[in-house]
Amino acid sequence: MSITDSHYDILIVGAGIAGSALAHALSDLPSYRRPLRIALLERSLAEPDRIVGELLQPGGVIALRQLGLEWTLEGIDAVPVKGYCILKDGQQVHIPYTEGHEGRSFHHGKFVMRLREAALKAKGVDVIEATVTELIEDPHDAKRIIGVHAKKPATVEGGEPEKAQYLADLVVIADGCFSNFRTAVMGASGFKPVTRSHFVGAVLEDVTLPIPQHGTVALVRGSGPVLLYQISEHDTRILIDVQQPLPQDLPAHILTNIVPQLPESLHAAVRAAIAKDRLRRMPNSFLPAVEQNGHSCKNGILLLGDAWNMRHPLTGGGMTVALNDVVLLRDQLISMPDFRDAKRVNQALKAWHWARKPLSSTVNILAFALYDLFGAEDDLLEVLRAGCFAYFERGGECVDGPVSLLSGVAKSPSLLFTHFFSVAFYSLYCLFTRPRLVTPPPSSSSSQKSKSTLLQPTSISTSQPTSISTSTLQPTSKPTPPKPTYITPTPLQYPFLALHSLRVFWAAILVFGPLLWSEIRWWSPSDTRRRNRVVAFAVLPVVVLVVVGFVALGAVGMKTGALKAELFPELAVRGVGVGSA
Q1: How many whole angstroms separate alpha carbon 86 and alpha carbon 92?
Q2: Which of 159, 235, 256 has its CA nearest to residue 476?
Q3: Does 569 sit behind a cis peptide bond, omega within 30 degrees of 0 on the bond before it?
Q4: Pairing between strand 485-487 and 215-219?
Q5: How far apart are CA 44 and CA 50, in angstroms?
Q6: Cα 429 from chain centroid (whole Å)
Q7: Helix, strand, or coil (residue 51)
Q8: 296 near 204, Cβ under 8 Å?
Q9: Hey, CA dihedral for 321, 322, 327, 330, is it positive or negative?
């Protein structure tokens, strides 16, 4: 069945965090503009169930306040977040937020439903349950998108889905990390997401974290970091970073390799969560943002949220960046008289791209820099990780500066650069002055070799590639761990440590440099046309300077020769005579 076409000013695909917030934001326009007609399409308006997008940093709360949406955090059993606690080898560092800032943690689905409620209440917004199947190109201009084809759920049980066509002056794609339209919008100008690891998640019931109302990051050996935060009065989310390739038996991997390194108070809750519920996983992907006005990009359409830009969720910065993007995009769009003006829209997209950089680049770089430090098993990065932990222990600005970046309050890549390399230099200082761990605490591998593990999975079955369930878990005896051994460097070791410090500093550059470049670069490596143009503009001034330099040197040389002949004619004559002889 075909439904009559509907035409809107703006059509948003995806009623998640970014899409719902943008629909509400654009409905609240200055009085000199007529109310916009906005369509918000979502394939399912049921409450979503995800394991990420559950911690909103203080910077995200500030963005909600700017959008008039701070009330959406109420009535969803949200928990205040006042900072972080980092655990490493039995030690902990408290990193509180500065200046009384607070974040919030919650069940993702409950927050999304509140944002959808805001969109439903917004003037001029139609929230429609429909699955977008295809973009509609302008019949007179194949580069321009003028709407979407969609399917609405059948009105009667067992019936056929109803086909619909929605037209709009501007289409916004906010369909998340698994976007179906990213490539269609960006073409050769876009990136492809790169997945480096997965977060494996579960919900722990009625546990007490080392510092209540604080996110907890546990640094474990042989795996990526473990993140824990309370998402309701009784529920606490645990996210375990598992690097690729994924183990075939994830429950056994977690029980034998991860759980023994977590605080003792969490062991029973983790066992119960794995026995009771399925483990779920989400990819941790890297997708740098590039300008959306390249030669192969479509006009009349733009990407927003995870469909355009992703970073590792370790720092919980995704929603903060998305909501800040909505604030800035609203400010660009509300002053635009005609969304069909491709030139004006592309100019606005370019301005938006660079206006978001102070926050987005800070969060993006920090997320993967911390992940590389916290999740690496490399000896060089281990020095940086220990130095980072020691840097936080100093307190004061060594904590306040980094946590202001982490919280999304400080929007300053230069401040991030300063603290990152301060950590690098302090790591080198610690390399010479602090005792070094020689015998590490017992790892899970030693537990396996002794055949005496904390937990023994006895009946584990897998049902789906993205969900793992277990049945019976039997606790066995816990081995007595050997005490770690430390030694202090001696002056005889200083020459070796000096060479080692150079390698450590180079490793720090290799961590930060590519991440910084990914934020500075505004084009995709696959966009050869734009890349060649950038290279040409970069090389041309150098070539011109070299040519001018050679010409200038030649002119100077000729003038010097003429002056020399004029002042010392006898030398010129003698030179000619000698030459002729």
Answers
A1: 5
A2: 256
A3: no
A4: unpaired
A5: 14
A6: 30
A7: coil
A8: no
A9: positive
